[in-house]
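Task: encode each sequence below as structure tokens.

Item 1
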Amino acid sequence: MTIHVQPVVRPEACPALVLNADYRPLSYYPLSIWCWQDAIKAVFLDRVNIVSEYDKVVRSPTSEIRLPSVISLKTYVKPSRQPAFTRFNVFLRDRFTCQYCGTHEDLTFDHVIPRSKGGQTTWENVVAACAPCNLRKGDRMPRDVEMWPRQSPFAPTLNDLHSNGRLFPPNYLHESWLDYLYWDSELEP
């Protein structure tokens, strides 16, 4: 006699993919996911629709519910028109790559025209740079050290950031999510 024991799946291993009311993810990178507690709370507050569920059930003394794996907001959240200027978004725009040497390690950001020379902290003047390149360039102009960014810095659109975010799929993708996510497997970061 063979006994099949199903692995115990803890609720913490069951995040919910959050879709906007149009069934598109709120964001790709980071992927819009909620922990199981937040997903259940949103269900009970009638703020989301359950699109797909895990096999995992959680119980209270009076009820039980299957954990949602995909939920959609009942009210459409209009995305902002311009992405916020943040360190993370600069890295995402530059595909987590040093714009001077191409490494993906130890990233910081660099002012192409140094602040000491009048450069500002704007999309058009900041690039991702590894710490060694940033240190090597210091507060000098690119022509003085012959260090030019591989790509001229620019203000990205939300679409630019979403497209780049698709280059970095998360480590975990539940099969129920795949109909709502579009990863470009042919492009490498």
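Item 2
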Amino acid sequence: MSRKNYLFTSESVSEGHPDKVSDCISDAIVDLFLAAEPEARVAVETLTTTNRVVLAGEVRGPASVGAEQMEAAARRVVRQIGYEQDGFHWKDMAVEIYVHGQSADIAMGVDSGANKEEGAGDQGIMFGYATDETDVYMPAPLHYSHLILKSLAAARHGGVTELGPDSKSQVTLQYEDGVPVRAASVVVSTQHGADVTQEQVREIVLGHIEKSLPSGWMCPEEELYINPTGNFVIGGPDGDAGLTGRKIIVDTYGGAAPHGGGAFSGKDPTKVDRSAAYASRYLAKNVVAAGLARRCTIQLAYAIGVSHPLSLYVDFHNTGEVDPAVLEKVLFEIMNLSPRGIREHLDLNRPIYERTAAYGHFGRAPEADGGFSWEKLDLVDSLKGHF
């Protein structure tokens, strides 16, 4: 029996969190290669620590993209995020690059040929999820966690000098009869200047929390935690090393749905960890928007070198209006879920990934240049027509 009344919590981290700095750099490298060659292959990880960035991975792309271009991209990202601190500065940091050619064994399994369709870049399972509890079809605790940090970042980029780039949020919502109704607690920790008091930080942050939550949802005063440990002056990669791919729950559904385990950032769209997760979100969102269910989880499974998914599974969480087994067959009809089919349907071979690295890959608005194409609702009519 599913519970109707409960508390549920999700967290988010800002673009200046050390792991997110790493994700942003890795995705900037993906964009660098795809801008030069749409069929480029990229798998690049980033380590960030005190005044040092290390890139490592495998690529296959044009000779015009080399170490110099990758270093420039890393410095640009760090500068745009806003790090000009003694312990982490875009100009002063050392950048080490250990990026080499893609494995011939992997390329053999993935590439298409005269008598072979393009296979998946790896084995694995990917999940997509959608819910009608927010207007962007995302779980509410994660949605509002993202909004708080996006609001703080916009203020910082707009001239609020008291704040630093590194911050985290956590929102706990009260659910009644399965619907979120208010915040039970909110936690925000944000980096700040050495001469800024905690009272000043609290005053700044409070306004961003209040405007990010729906009217009347603010948590009780005793459940509001702003910089609960006190000073947060040393932050970002100077305070804690960052790595690509360590915030996969922040990137997806905040723990409200299963996760296959594969990170997104630093991977070109032939990697089904990324593209199939986008496709499953796209399908789940359209299913909910079409009124076929109030919540929908979709799982896809792939094998390296195999051109078709091994399985597709739909779960409506007891909210469905149609037979999920029938829907599984319909989804195969309305979208080609091979790795190339996904890339072509969602037009993924574009330099659109750096923008995804912070504040979630889902629940964003589709953009004119093809960014966040997996958030489009262009399958709704087709789905309705099948039922």
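Check on item 2: The chain is about 30% helix and 25% strand. The mean pLDDT is 95.
End of task.
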